Amino acid sequence: MATRAPPSPVSPESYAVIEPRHDRESFTISDLSAEFDVTARALRFYEDEGLIAPERRGTQRIYSHRDRARLAWILRGKRVGFSLGEIREMIDLYDLGDGRRAQRQVVIERSQARIALLTAQKRDIDLAIDELTSFVALLEASRAQDTPQG
């Protein structure tokens, strides 16, 4: 399987609603593995976790458009740091039948909370980098002042 670079974090394809595939009624594990650049093992794991539910025809898994859309949600959620439990909760809200209002509201709230957390972590990382940079500069300056004992 060819490895592709993940979409840029700022590219619209990273966040756009997944486009339906009208050219297909169903998908195989190979189809989805190739399209989303995930392993068959990952797909089986998501199935075991109850996040997707392919139909079985003998030993073959047949994935629906719903499974494909759920997989896109899973991967997007993982990419931005949501747990599988959080992803499951947000995906399952789609089935409430309220025109996705509840799902949208929860996703907005969770995303805003995640942005706040990531912003705080980024600030902490920036402070740690600044502190380490200053410390290294201090050590390098003291090393430069050392004279060999003779």
From TrEMBL:
Keywords: DNA-binding. The keyword DNA-binding applies. Transmembrane segments: none annotated. GO terms for molecular function: DNA binding; DNA-binding transcription factor activity. The keyword DNA-binding applies. Residues 26-93 form the HTH merR-type domain. It comes from the Bacteria. Signal peptide: none annotated. Pfam families: MerR_1. PANTHER family: HTH-TYPE TRANSCRIPTIONAL REGULATOR YFMP, REDOX-CYCLING DRUG-SENSING TRANSCRIPTIONAL ACTIVATOR SOXR. This is Transcriptional regulator. It comes from Sphingomonas taxi.
